[in-house]
Amino acid sequence: MTVPPKTAPSAAPRALSKNHPLVVHREALLGCRRCPDVYPPVVSGRAVSTEIFFIGQAPGVHEGSIGQPFAWTAGKTLFRWLATIGVSEEAFRAHVYMTAVIRCFPGKAKNGGGDRVPSREEIETCGAWMHDEVQIIRPKLVMAIGRLAIERVAQRKIGTLDSVVGPLHQGVFFGQPIDWIALPHPSGLSSWHKMELGKRLLSESLATFAAHPSFARTFGTLT
Questions:
Q1: What CATH superfamily classification does 21-219 receive?
Q2: What percentage of the chain reaches a pLDDT higher than 70?
């Protein structure tokens, strides 16, 4: 992929009042302790007015203490990907609502192979918060990062990543008509995005994102 110049966001994000529904929602979310088998605190992106909704899988062990999603190794990879289409980490965090399938660290898998996969009950419990976020934000574009998030948006099992990564999809998410784009998870444990097919489809997904009208409205036009 040809690296374009960095984008300048079309305008600084407008600060939301403390009584804005999304600010009120986020404050309540941060106090959630509904799931007994996860490790608080809740990790959430900033409360921003946006049309782009970003869904990761779950926070890692470090994100809770840092206080923001994708703040460790996988985040470095993710923001390196976004830099190839001209979006800096700060611009992305300031202009995109960053969420996840669950918002607390689920703990390590018993077999030692990475983090534990959240239970269906945990996904549905945290999904109630996501439902409310979608009703407040009414996103036009959803970015789903990793299999768990992709299947949450697609509302089905997806088989292989190459069946969904690359093109633009349409769907309905919590009652909201959306476009959505799938990206592989940038975890160091995953080799898919390091293989030739994965690299090509990742590049296609990023190009699809950069070509979407929501991208231009959010980050400005590449020059």
A1: Uracil-DNA glycosylase-like domain (3.40.470.10)
A2: 92
